[in-house]
Amino acid sequence: MALMLSAPLHAAIPVYGYTIVHRYPHDTNAFTEGLFYRDGFLYESTGMEGASSVRKVELRSGKVVQQTLLPPKIFGEGIVAWKDRLIQLTWRQHIGLVYDLASLKPIRLFRYPGEGWALTSHEDRLYMSDGTPDLRVLDANTLQQVGTIHVTADGKPVHNLNELEWVDGQLFANIWQASRIARIDPATGHVVGWIELKGLLDVSKLPNPEDDVLNGIAWDAEHRRLFVTGKCWPTLFEIRLVAPRKQSR
Fold it and tell me: Which residue windows are transmembrane per the record (predicted)?
């Protein structure tokens, strides 16, 4: 079991470390844009034009057991499950896709302005990132925007909010091209903690280190398991958070 702790990013916001609980294989061709865990399987969306997909993946083997490819000119982004549906964003096409969750067959499209990056859900609300400090709040039934959460850390806007996951009342968000995850209070938009994952994988050894960055968070609420990975990473990690060290005076 590996242990990593980092120096605080800011004294006012606690910084959590991690231990690696387990390593699972991950498809190195999967440019991960969205990830969630449900009923024993991972569901993943992949990006890049000509390589975008939505897929159901066996956790232990990393084997793709079900997959739907997107049209060649569509750049797939984040996904979320809602009832018996799977909802997927696209990057700059201003459209989202709704699938039957069981078959991964497309059912319909919906539209939204601006870019689409990531999705997660809680109760009847979806939370959507678009790379800005503002998370959109959508009605899960109508897919219409009903609110906005402005995300700040120490009073400053947090840019490049990417892949999202709802974990125990907080929104976890990857920060694009950073080694950390923000823990966001959805009521205020304040970052109440950072998870520092520096050293989890040496991305300098990947074929495209500038693009193949940390991205992908999945939470197994029943078994209290947290999974993280990155774009084209060879490994998906199950991690356990380590509480921040107390600061000496």
Answer: none
Dist. CA 242–CA 249, nearest whole Å = 21
Helix (H) or strand (E) holding 20: strand 15-25
Residue pair 83/102 in contact by the 8 Å Cβ criterion: no
Strand intervals (E) in 91-160: 95-100, 106-111, 118-122, 125-129, 134-139, 145-150, 152-153, 156-157
pLDDT (0 to 100) of residue 137: 98
In angstroms, the CA 123 to CA 130 distance is: 21
Report the largest interatomic distance among the alpha carbons of the chain, rounded to a whole angstrom: 59
Taking residues 30-58, report their average pLDDT.
Answer: 95
Tell me which residue of 76, 32, 89 sits closest to 211, measured CA to CA: 32
Angle at 77 between CA 242 and CA 188, to 5 degrees: 50
Q: What is the pLDDT of residue 8?
A: 44
What the chain holds in terms of domains, given with CATH numbers, is 3-242 (2.120.10.30)
- pLDDT value at residue 249: 37
Q: How many CB atoms lie within 10 A of CB 140?
A: 17
Amino acid code (one letter) for 219: W
